[in-house]
Amino acid sequence: MGTRRLARERAVQVLYAIDRTGQSLSEALVGYLEILQDSKRRSHLHHFTVELLEKTLAHREEIDRLLTSVITHWQPDRVAVVDRQILRLACCELLHFPDIPPKVVLNEYIEVAKVYSGDDAAAFVNGVLDRIMHMKNNQRDEG
């Protein structure tokens, strides 16, 4: 498993903790940093995870609006907590990490969904992210 995949998984775990406990990002990161103590890849893993978390939380309203526009009759609080966090993180990467190819983002989060939520969730994540990628491509073509 690559360092970025592990960073994405850690970000899912931290966002899940924030959602379930109501902790702030800094509070949730304390537990995360304890997990990293033994990691040889700590600095790169930590940097990408924290950047991803900060951007996702900073743009959460925008991300949830996008998800609501893509998924008919979808409200963020009606999706399983882990799936919601996976979708938020993936959308953040698609919108705010232009150096990462969209297909990489899609594939990475499908794999994360398989690990944390199962094949049905992976198919759901795939469908949602595919729609978002197509929507972004259409906007770019029109703009």
In short:
With 143 residues, this protein is mostly helical. It has helices spanning 3-21, 25-36, 42-58, 60-70, 81-96, 102-116, 119-142. It has one domain (3-142): N-utilizing Substance Protein B Homolog, Chain A, CATH 1.10.940.10.
Give a structural overview.
This protein is mostly helical. The protein has one domain (3-142): N-utilizing Substance Protein B Homolog, Chain A. The chain has 7 helices and no strands. The chain has helices at residues 3-21, 25-36, 42-58, 60-70, 81-96, 102-116, 119-142. Helix 1 (3-21) crosses helix 3 (42-58) and helix 5 packs parallel to helix 7 (119-142). The chain is globular, with a radius of gyration of 15 Å. 30% of the residues are buried. The model has no long low-confidence stretch (mean pLDDT 86).
Structural descriptors:
143 residues; mainly alpha; N-utilizing Substance Protein B Homolog, Chain A; 7 helices
